[in-house]
Amino acid sequence: MMAHHKPGLVSAIWSMKCPACRKGFLFKNKGIFPLSQITDMPEHCPECGQKTEIETGFYFGTGYVSYALSVMLFVVNFVLYKLIFGLSFRDNSPYYYLATSITIVVLLQPWLMRMSRVIYLYAFVKYNDKAQESAA
Ligand SMILES: [Zn+2]
């Protein structure tokens, strides 16, 4: 039996919740505007007090994560494009495929920037059952 009080890992990551308690939202602004504050995080999780920047420069490596996510989007779009429109080197479809992939990655850039930080934080912070009680 699954414990009911523990929010699922995937849905917690998807909704950008704190990795320690899976309840507190990790960013200052719910929406993506203003874009200049897109990756602004509160210093501590509002629910459990987990530090969001574990050490100075912690998020330096997130560029690699967003790069990996972008590559993943290219692959997903490749599969979808091939299934829906078909890809052939005898017409312009490879160019359309590339154009749609680039458009998707550019449009999703704000989401990618946030998601790469969330994934990065999840890689280093474990779920903590006692997160609620240990909040200072
Ligand atoms: Zn938390």
Key features?
136 residues; mainly alpha; elongated; binds zinc ion
Bound molecules: zinc ion
Estimated radius of gyration: 18 Å
Mean of residue pLDDT?
92
Q: What proportion of the residues is helical, as a percent range?
A: 40-55%
Main sheet summary: none
Helices and strands, in order, run as HHHH
Spatial shape:
elongated
**Count of all domains:** 1
What is the count of helical runs?
4
Beta content? under 5%
State the total count of DSSP E strands: 0
Helix-strand category: mainly alpha
Q: What separation lies between the terminal Cα atoms?
A: 32 Å
Task: Point out poorly predicted stretches.
Answer: none
What is this structure, in a nutshell?
The chain has 136 residues and is mainly alpha-helical. The chain has four helices and no strands.
Kindly describe this structure.
With 136 residues, the chain is mainly alpha-helical. The chain has one domain (9-124). It has helices at residues 9-14, 62-84, 93-107, 109-124. The relative contact order is 0.19. The model has no long low-confidence stretch (mean pLDDT 92). The protein binds zinc ion. Zinc ion binds at residues 18, 20-21, 23-24, 45, 47-48, 50, 131.
Topology:
Blueprint: H1 9-14, H2 62-84, H3 93-107, H4 109-124
